[in-house]
Amino acid sequence: MHFEPDAVYHVYNRSNEQVFFSRENYLYFLKKVQLQIKPACNILSWVLMPNHFHFLIQATPNGCRTDNESHLPHIQLLSKRFGNILSSYTQAINKERNRRGKLFSHNTKAKNLNDIAFEEALNGSNRLAHRPDYTTACFLYIHQNPVIAGIANSLSDWEFSSFRDYAGSRKGKLVSKEIAKEMIELDFENFKQQSQFLIEEELLKKLF
């Protein structure tokens, strides 16, 4: 993964098997995110699912700096910390469940939403057509994940996402709400209603 300062990224990883087995597992993972990821970026939204996770983040200069103290000096701090979290979480689950091997079978991916090309160039010139709001679409998609997957009846039913923080039913400290409100094109006074907006399939594909 490579990050540019101030750019917005959809960061995700999906395993071929279950990775969160209990409420304590989710909370343990989130604690690591709070300690390692939050200081290196602005977290706009997130969701943890039984076999995968999604984060919408804005990279910061601190997170984009290379980690000169490690044996891999070309690795950015934010990238390294995501790797560290998955590694340490895997070790904890392996010990808890008496298992061995990788838990996350795929590499974590970071899609730069600012770099998605406009859909069309006008008349073959360098002028580009209007770009859909990928950041808002990703924000909505992340919160809608539990309902889409059929593990929750409503967005507020799922504890392990940032939806409740924006809905005002929880005072979580993981998301940078004020920054998100400046970037996300939603009326946050009607957040619960607007969170139900459907995302077009073609737009959704561009988030990965």
UniProtKB/TrEMBL annotation:
<protein>
    <submittedName>
        <fullName>Transposase</fullName>
    </submittedName>
</protein>
<dbReference type="InterPro" id="IPR002686">
    <property type="entry name" value="Transposase_17"/>
</dbReference>
<dbReference type="GO" id="GO:0006313">
    <property type="term" value="P:DNA transposition"/>
</dbReference>
<feature type="domain" description="Transposase IS200-like">
    <location>
        <begin position="4"/>
        <end position="123"/>
    </location>
</feature>
<dbReference type="GO" id="GO:0004803">
    <property type="term" value="F:transposase activity"/>
</dbReference>
<dbReference type="InterPro" id="IPR036515">
    <property type="entry name" value="Transposase_17_sf"/>
</dbReference>
<dbReference type="GO" id="GO:0003677">
    <property type="term" value="F:DNA binding"/>
</dbReference>
